[in-house]
C-alpha cells in the first residue's frame, strides 16, 4: 500500500510511533522503523548531548527512516534543532508551540516537518507555516493535549476539510480497526503513543508499563489545563492536583505542585504514587506488553482484515 504518508516518509505502513517523553528512545524508534512504520525519538525528555547519542544509536540500529519529536516549549530548543540538523535527521515532528518559529529553518535544510495540532485553526497555521503534514490529536490522547477537548473522531474530518496537506490521526488509536476508522474519516495515517508505551523497547519503567495495561475505563483524566493540559492516570499526585484545582489554585500553585522531574519520577523511575503518569484513554484497551515490531504487525494485519471484511450491517 502506498499512500500520502507512506510516500512522504518512505515507509511501508502509515503507522507512526509518537515521540513520548521518557518512553521513546532509540531502541523503540529503531524497532518501529525496522518493522515498516516510522519511529520517533522523543527529545522532550532529553538533554542535547543525550539526544545526539540517541540519534546516532538509532542510525546504527536501522537503515530505515526515523525522526525526532521536538516540543517547542522546551528551553534548549535552539540547541536541539541544531543537533537534528547537524546529525542529518530528515524528519522532525514539532509540538507544543508555534510552528512558524522553526519550520522554515528546518525545511531550508531539507527536513520534512510535521506539527501536532488540536484544532482546525492550528492545523491551518501549521500549513501556512510550511509544514508537510499535521498530526491531529484528539482529547483522548495522553501527554500534551488541547484545551478544546475535541475528540479524535470529531477532530479528524474537521482538520481534513481545513487543510490540503496530509493529516495523521492521533488520540485513542491502538488497533488496526481504530486505524481504519480514522482513515475512513480522511486521515492518511495514524500516530500511536500509548500502545507503544506498553512495548518491550519503550524506555519507560516496567512498573509504569504494567500500570498502563492494568488501567480500565475512567482511570485517566485530563488535568493541569491552566498550565499545559495532560492526561494522567489517577494516583496520589493526580489527587493532589485535583484537590488544588477544586480549591481554586492558580497556575503558580499548580506549577509549584508539579515541580521539576515529576514526569521522570513517574514514567521513567516508576514511582506510581507521586510521579506524573501521562497516558491516553486507550490504555483501557491494552492487555499486554508486546515487542514494538509485533505491535506494528498486528495493527497492520487488523487494518487489512478490516478492509477486506467490512462490517456486516444485516
Please compute the radius of gyration using only Cα atoms: 18 Å
Strand content is 5-15%
Number of domains: 2
Q: Give the number of DSSP strands.
A: 11
Helix content: 40-55%
Uncertain runs are none
Question: Which SSEs are present, and which pair or pack?
Answer:
Blueprint: H1 4-9, E1 15-17, H2 26-34, E2 39-42, H3 48-61, E3 66-71, H4 77-86, E4 91-95, H5 103-107, E5 112-117, H6 120-128, E6 133-137, E7 143-144, H7 152-162, E8 167-170, H8 176-184, E9 189-192, H9 194-197, H10 206-214, E10 220-223, E11 230-233, H11 236-246, H12 251-258, H13 262-268, H14 292-308
Parallel strand pairs: 1-9, 2-3, 3-4, 4-5, 5-6, 6-8, 8-9
Antiparallel strand pairs: 7-11, 10-11
Helix pairs in contact: 2-3, 3-4, 6-7, 8-14, 11-12
Characterize the structure shown.
With 314 residues, this protein is of the alpha/beta class. It folds into 2 domains: 4-203 and 285-308, TIM Barrel (Alpha-Beta Barrel), CATH 3.20.20.70; 210-282, no CATH class. It contains 14 helices and 11 strands. Strands 1-9-8-6-5-4-3-2 form an 8-stranded parallel beta sheet. Strands 7-11-10 form a 3-stranded antiparallel beta sheet, with helices on one face. Strand 10 (220-223) and strand 11 form a beta hairpin. The longest helix is centred in the C-terminal third of the chain and has 17 residues, at 292-308. The relative contact order is 0.14. The mean pLDDT is 94.
Amino acid at each position: 500500500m502506498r499512500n500520502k504518508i507512506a510516500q512522504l516518509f518512505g515507509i511501508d505502513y502509515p503507522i507512526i510511533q509518537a515521540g513520548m517523553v521518557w518512553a521513546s528512545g532509540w531502541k523503540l524508534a529503531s524497532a518501529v522503523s525496522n518493522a515498516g512504520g516510522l519511529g520517533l525519538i522523543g527529545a522532550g525528555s532529553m538533554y542535547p548531548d543525550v539526544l545526539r547519542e540517541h540519534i546516532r544509536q538509532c542510525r546504527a540500529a536501522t537503515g530505515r527512516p526515523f525522526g525526532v519529536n521536538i516540543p517547542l516549549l522546551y528551553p534548549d530548543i535552539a540547541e536541539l534543532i541544531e543537533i537534528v540538523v547537524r546529525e542529518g535527521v530528515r524528519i522532525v515532528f514539532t509540538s507544543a508551540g508555534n510552528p512558524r518559529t522553526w519550520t522554515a529553518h528546518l525545511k531550508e535544510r531539507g527536513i520534512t516537518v510535521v506539527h501536532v495540532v488540536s484544532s482546525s485553526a492550528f492545523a491551518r497555521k501549521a500549513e501556512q507555516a510550511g509544514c508537510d503534514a499535521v498530526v491531529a490529536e484528539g482529547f483522548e490522547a495522553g501527554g500534551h493535549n488541547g484545551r478544546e477537548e475535541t475528540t479524535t473522531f470529531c477532530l479528524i474530518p474537521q482538520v481534513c476539510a481545513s487543510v490540503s496537506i496530509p493529516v495523521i490521526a492521533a488520540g485513542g488509536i491502538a488497533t488496526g480497526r481504530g486505524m481504519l476508522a480514522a482513515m475512513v474519516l480522511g486521515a492518511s495515517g495514524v500516530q500511536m503513543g500509548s500502545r507503544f508505551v506498553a512495548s518491550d523497547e519503550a524506555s519507560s519503567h516496567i512498573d509504569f508499563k504494567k500500570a498502563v495495561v492494568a488501567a480500565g475505563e475512567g482511570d485517566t483524566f485530563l488535568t493541569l489545563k491552566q498550565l499545559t493540559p495532560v492526561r494522567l492516570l489517577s494516583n496520589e499526585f493526580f489527587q493532589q492536583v485535583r484537590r488544588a484545582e477544586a480549591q481554586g489554585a492558580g497556575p503558580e500553585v499548580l506549577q509549584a505542585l508539579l515541580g521539576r522531574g515529576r514526569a521522570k519520577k513517574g514514567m521513567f523511575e516508576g514511582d506510581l504514587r507521586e510521579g506524573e503518569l501521562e497516558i491516553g484513554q486507550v490504555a483501557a484497551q491494552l492487555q499486554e506488553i508486546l515487542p514494538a515490531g509485533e505491535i506494528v504487525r498486528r495493527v497492520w494485519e487488523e487494518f487489512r482484515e478490516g478492509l477486506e471484511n467490512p462490517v456486516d450491517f444485516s
